[in-house]
Amino acid sequence: MWDNILRYMPRFNSAVLTSLDAVGYPFSVRCQPQPDSAHQILRLSLPESVLLMPGPACLLFHKH
């Protein structure tokens, strides 16, 4: 799976992270995930003003 992520990620300029905000409402924010191959995870840098609840989230890569 990790090899597929690394193969397809460069096709996209950014991604959309959707999770629940601090109050529990769905919230989406555009981000630029950075692969950490040593740990096989994607690292996200989000603005400090974005407060999300811990738990499940969705990361969508797409083009228009």
Report on the architecture of this protein:
The protein is mainly beta and 64 residues long. It has 1 helix and 5 strands. The strands form 2 sheets. It has a 3-stranded antiparallel β-sheet, with no helix packed on it. The protein is globular. 2% of the residues are buried.
What is the fold's blueprint, element by element?
Layout (H helix, E strand, L loop, with lengths): L1 H7 L6 E6 L5 E6 L2 E3 L4 E3 L14 E3 L4
Q: What does the main sheet amount to?
A: 3 strands, antiparallel
What is the N-to-C succession of helices and strands? HEEEEE
Taking pLDDT < 50 over at least 5 consecutive residues as the criterion, the unreliable ranges are none
The helix content is 10-25%
Provide the residue-averaged pLDDT. Answer: 95
The total count of strands amounts to 5
The strand line-up of the biggest sheet is 2-1-5
Q: Quickly count the helices.
A: 1
Basic shape = globular
- SS-based class: mainly beta
- The first-to-last residue Cα distance is 25 Å
Q: Could you name the key traits of this structure?
A:
64 residues, mainly beta, three-stranded antiparallel beta sheet
Structure summarized in a few sentences:
This protein is mainly beta. The protein has one helix at residues 2-8; strands at residues 15-20, 26-31, 34-36, 41-43, 58-60.
